[in-house]
Amino acid sequence: MKLIIPIPFLIQEGMMLINTSVGEGFSNTFIEAWNQCTPVISLNSDPDKCINHYKLGYHSATFENMFKNANKLINNKILREEFGRNGKLYIKKNTI
User: Given this model, what pLDDT does residue 25 score?
Assistant: First the structure.
């Protein structure tokens, strides 16, 4: 029997979503993560410049920064929760 786990559940159980895509625009996984109160760390993609501006996670721009930002979120539950709440609010304000 094949076990099927819904993606939102997996995202909700994670500390953060890390996106390392080079050629992607605004990822649907960002929306899914923020809807589950999960902060996002993006290596390359932030077309609307919303991640840092609205404190939804980090747009890291380099691998070094990505690892530093991931460590910040791993070690700071209060910051993870703040970014998660901000993400949920961002989704509520910016989607139909």
Answer: 66
Q: Is the pLDDT assigned to residue 11 strictly greater than 90?
A: no
Average pLDDT, whole number, for the chain? 91
When pLDDT is averaged across residues 17-41 and rounded to a whole number, the result is 89
Domains in the chain, ordered, with CATH?
14-94 (3.40.50.2000)
Residue type, 84: G
Sheet holding 17-19: strands in order across?
17-19, 40-42, 57-59
CA dist., res. 35 & res. 81, Å (int):
13
**Amino acid symbol at 23:** G
Q: Which two tokens stand for residue 71?
A: 């460590």
**Residue ranges of E strands in the chain:** 17-19, 40-42, 57-59
Report pTM. Answer: 0.88
Distance CA 18, CA 33 (A): 10
